Amino acid sequence: MNDTWLFTSLCFFVLAGCAAVRIIPGPTLFDRLIAARTAVTIAVIGGLSAGIAYGSFFLLELVIASAVVGYAVIGLRAATYLGVQV
Could you list the pLDDT tens digit for every one of the 86 residues in the chain? Predict the structure, then answer.
């Protein structure tokens, strides 16, 4: 199976994993938040590429839901760090 979109999605997932590794040793919280946002964004791009590769609309919906949850968690973490009552 020589599918360009599948290879692209696998490369994006590897990149998202590398960005997720950066979350652990981040020196400050804001560095970790940027790494988490980068990991979520690259994972979403990988999921969209996989959805194109498989021709699945369900995968597209799953990617959108995971992006919303991922960005909401990151935003809540930043808000609690800044002392905002949520």
Answer: 458 999 999 999 999 999 999 888 878 888 889 999 999 999 999 999 999 988 889 999 999 999 999 999 999 988 888 888 76
pTM of this prediction?
A: 0.86
Q: Name the residue ranges covered by the structural domains of the chain.
A: 4-82
Query: What own/partner pairs with CB < 8 Å and gap ≥ 24 does 12-21 have?
Result: 12/42, 12/43, 12/45, 12/46, 12/49, 13/43, 13/46, 15/42, 15/46, 16/40, 16/42, 16/43, 16/46
